[in-house]
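Q: I'm building a small set of examples for a reading group on sequence design. Run inverse folding on the following structure and report the sequence directly after it, with nothing in between.
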């Protein structure tokens, strides 16, 4: 199905939005490559071609995904993020190695990272809990996006209150990381775990507030009541 990629790119070029083009870069510190297409529109394009793509074998589906990643366009990465959660029934725990390779080679901004990891890897972790240990180990990577991925891959499970101890283990490794993208990633993870485990997350934050960067701390307590926020923000 060699023409699918060409058709997707033609659709993306045809649906660029002047307002989105103008504002896209301001959401990123690093220079990003983009068409300027609204995320909702990208989702519709992904959905349009998915019925054809899903009939292919896994190797062919992965090849299409990697070709989209290679372009470096943020919206093309979003296509992958829309497709693979729909393909979850065909994914296996061994596919995690392929996904890590994609993160290392192609993920270069927070939107690509979160779009891919929240659902594709997050859903994979829930389907195969034994993969959690491998994803946790990414926190020790020297690649900022792999480190962020170790945290944000647990976001969707965390909203259900799952993998709390794994989340704390990831945060222990990332706790004093100086990269704001990593800090925001693990702070976000703590915030989502606080939905079901507010007291435990609060206690974790208070225990570590002397060394936890304020960026991460503020993310972690975002959903908490004001009195807990004020207590957590105290400097000892």
């Amino acid at each position: 199905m060699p023409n699918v990629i060409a058709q997707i790119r033609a659709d993306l070029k045809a649906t660029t939005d002047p307002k989105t083009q103008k504002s896209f870069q301001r959401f990123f510190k690093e220079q990003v490559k983009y068409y300027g297409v609204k995320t909702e529109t990208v989702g519709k394009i992904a959905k349009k071609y998915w019925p054809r793509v899903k009939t292919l074998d896994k190797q062919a589906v992965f090849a299409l995904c990697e070709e989209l990643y290679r372009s470096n366009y943020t919206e093309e990465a979003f296509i992958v993020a829309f497709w693979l959660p729909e393909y979850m029934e065909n994914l296996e725990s061994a596919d995690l190695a392929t996904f890590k390779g994609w993160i290392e080679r192609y993920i270069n901004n927070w939107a690509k990272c979160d779009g891919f990891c929240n659902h594709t890897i997050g859903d994979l972790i829930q389907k195969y809990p034994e993969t959690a240990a491998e994803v946790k180990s990414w926190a020790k990577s020297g690649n900022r996006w792999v480190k962020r991925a170790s945290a944000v891959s647990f976001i969707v499970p965390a909203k259900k209150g799952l993998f709390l101890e794994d989340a704390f283990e990831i945060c222990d490794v990332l706790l004093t990381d100086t990269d704001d993208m990593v800090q925001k990633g693990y702070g976000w993870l703590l915030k989502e775990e606080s939905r079901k485990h507010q007291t435990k997350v609060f206690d974790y934050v208070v225990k570590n507030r002397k060394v936890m960067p304020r960026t991460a701390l503020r993310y972690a307590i975002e959903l908490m009541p004001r009195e807990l926020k004020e207590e957590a923000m105290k400097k000892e």
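The chain has a mean pLDDT of 97.
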